[in-house]
Structure formats: structure tokens, C-alpha cells
Design a protein that fits this description.
Elements lengths: L4 H12 L2 H12 L7 H5 L5 E2 L8 E6 L5 E6 L5 H14 L4 H5 L17 H23 L2
Antiparallel strand pairs: 1-2, 2-3
Helix pairs in contact: 1-4, 2-4, 4-6
Length: 144
């Protein structure tokens, strides 16, 4: 298992940030989550809820024929912590090859120091988001 360079760049930023700036950084990543495309707003059936999150959080992935993975997240703006984690995943994984996405270890965020600034329950939700995302990618690959 390995962390792709684009995600490692984000991880390193958090590792180097003082504890008091990690929350601010997480909130900045919350702003990087793009809105859902129009077709997903009209028909939300393709979105899967991550029930382990304290917040209503939904995700979908698309794997193109060339293996590129695209991520779609829906979380309320009043939940900046989980949106921040979604922003980290979006920044670090969107557009990458499916092999790279599947190679991300489930605890990649452990070195980011997030455990010092968010609750264990939120960390469990973050882990579940990555697990669902990777499962969806595997399922998409298996269908081709």
C-alpha cells in the first residue's frame, strides 16, 4: 500500500502544521469540495450514504474506461470537519488511476495529526469514507 504523490503532498502539509493550524487547514479543505453535478442533484440514487459519519454524508465514484477515478461528495456545509476530509480526498485522489486509489492505506491520515484535533468518532467516519470509496472503485473495475 502506498500514498500517491498528490495525496502525500496534503499529508505532509498537515504533518508539518502546528496543532492549532490543523483545524484551520481542515476547514480550508472543506471549501475544495465541488458541488455535485446537475445530474446527481436531480437523481441522488447513485450516491451512497456513509452511515458511520455523524453527518449525513454521501459519495459516488466514477471510473472511466482508462481507469481514471472521479469522486463526488455531498455533505452539508455546516459539517466542515467531514467536508474537510472529503476535500483532502478530492485534492489527493480525484483523477488518479484506480490502482493508485486502491493502494491508499486505510489509515493514511494517522500521520497527519488529525487525531489531536478531531474526535475518534469523526476519525472512524473518515476511515469509512475511504473504505466506501475504494469499494465502489473495486466494484466498478469488476463490472468492466
Amino acid at each position: 500500500m502506498s500514498i500517491p504523490a498528490s495525496l502525500q503532498k496534503v499529508v505532509t502539509r498537515f504533518e508539518r502544521a502546528p496543532k492549532d493550524l490543523r483545524v484551520q487547514a481542515l476547514l480550508q479543505y472543506a471549501k475544495k469540495v465541488p458541488p455535485l453535478p446537475e445530474d446527481m442533484l436531480d437523481d441522488r440514487s447513485g450516491l451512497e450514504q456513509v452511515h458511520e459519519c455523524q453527518t449525513p454524508f454521501f459519495l459516488a465514484t466514477r471510473v472511466d474506461p482508462d481507469g481514471s477515478v472521479y469522486l463526488f461528495f455531498d455533505a452539508p456545509p455546516e459539517s466542515p470537519t467531514v467536508r474537510g476530509f472529503a476535500g483532502i480526498l478530492y485534492e489527493g485522489l480525484n483523477g488518479l488511476d484506480s490502482d493508485d486509489v486502491l493502494a491508499v492505506p486505510p489509515d493514511f491520515y494517522s500521520t497527519m495529526g488529525l487525531g489531536e484535533v478531531v474526535s475518534p468518532l469523526r476519525l472512524r467516519g473518515m476511515s469509512a469514507i475511504l473504505a466506501r470509496l475504494q469499494r465502489q472503485v473495486r466494484e466498478a473495475i469488476d463490472q468492466t
